[in-house]
Input
Amino acid sequence: MNQINYGIAFGSNLGNRLSNLRQAKRLLLHHCPNPDDVIYSPIYETQPVNCAKGTNAFLNAAADFPFSLTPQEVLNLCIQIESAFERPQKREENTPRKIDLDIIYAGTLVQNSKTLTIPHPRLYERRFVLEPLSTIMPKLILPSQKKSILQHLTDIESSEQPLRKITCTW
Output
């Protein structure tokens, strides 16, 4: 398999959220042939979206990872990492979690299967994904789009609260 750059969105709202993001990052790096080529966004604190009342705030970030893995292999890796953080595979949508990893894009690949849709189908509706991603890939135009990530962020119509940058290093 040739190397493909994958956009991965990170989220955590249980336990030590910053530690959770850092540990998930380390676990992903074990599978990355060129760890020095990974690009990381700042980490933002965000208010929950479409979650139950009283849900803790999230920490969210994005990264661009070069992997020599298929999209299904990256999905399986993300699921394994989430499971290591005790996230059940069968769960209600938008429940609190120690770690959430989503594949946002996989180079120029487009996939629509029962288990995986790339680019992520709700990417353009989520400030908590677009804003971190825009800091590392502002000019990226994903397949079947005419606008860049930064243009999508500028044009987003969202009721989300503004994001609060908490750190640039993780």
